[in-house]
């Protein structure tokens, strides 16, 4: 992380270089070990991204902040941030990012007991990941769909999604 902080703190670096460094710091460096710090650093990213009109990095910072909320069981707050990020992802045509945002929305909706909303979000994620041919994203969306249908007691539908995800995993292993 030290070299990334060096890039972030170097005002001679381009704003895009600095934003990229902060994105890695917040998301990869802190999110899963210290969600509060990840939120803090994502706010730094958000501030610079807003000041430099980098919608891509605004959306990335919002997703990091949303994931920070989700990991701390603040699901409603996470949903609000993810909806903002999703709107931006769609405006700028970031289909892979749209998949990520809708997948994270699905995780939040399951935790909120909104299984039907989760199904819709996971399906949107699956379609986005199919559009960019991201087999890993497709597979995790199918697992999400299986989990959501399972909570709705639609076990045969859930099993179908799990089996489809397994087929992708086996194909990727070859």
Question: TL;DR?
Answer:
The protein is mostly helical and 174 residues long.
Mean of residue pLDDT?
A: 96
Strand coverage percent? under 5%
Largest sheet: none
Overall outline: elongated
Structural class: mainly alpha
Radius of gyration: 17 Å
Spans where pLDDT lies below 50 across 5 or more residues: none
Q: First CA to last CA: what distance?
A: 35 Å
Tally the helices.
Answer: 9
Strand tally, please?
0
Query: Approximately how much helix is present in the residues?
Result: over 70%
Query: What are the secondary-structure elements, in order, as H or E?
Result: HHHHHHHHH
Structural overview:
This protein is an all-alpha fold. Helices cover 84% and strands 0% of the residues. The protein has nine helices and no strands. It has helices spanning 2-9, 15-30, 35-51, 55-71, 75-92, 95-111, 115-131, 135-151, 155-173. Helix 6 packs antiparallel against helix 7 (115-131), helix 7 runs antiparallel to helix 8 and helix 8 (135-151) packs antiparallel against helix 9. The longest helix is centred in the last third of the chain and has 19 residues, at 155-173. It is elongated and about 55 Å long.
């Amino acid at each position: 992380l030290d070299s990334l902080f060096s890039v972030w703190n170097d005002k001679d670096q381009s704003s895009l270089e600095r934003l990229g460094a902060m994105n890695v710091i917040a998301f990869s460096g802190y999110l899963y070990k210290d969600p509060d710090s990840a939120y803090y650093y994502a706010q730094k990213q958000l501030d610079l991204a807003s000041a430099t009109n980098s919608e891509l990095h605004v959306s990335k910072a919002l997703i990091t902040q949303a994931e920070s909320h989700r990991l701390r069981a603040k699901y409603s707050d996470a949903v609000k941030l993810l909806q903002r990020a999703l709107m931006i992802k769609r405006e700028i045509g970031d289909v892979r990012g749209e998949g990520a945002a809708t997948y994270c929305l699905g995780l939040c909706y399951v935790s909120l007991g909104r299984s039907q909303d989760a199904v819709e979000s996971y399906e949107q994620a699956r379609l986005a990941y199919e559009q960019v041919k991201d087999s890993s994203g497709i597979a995790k969306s199918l697992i999400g769909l299986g989990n959501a249908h399972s909570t709705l007691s639609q076990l045969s539908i859930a099993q179908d999604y799990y089996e489809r995800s397994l087929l992708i995993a086996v194909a990727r292993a070859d």
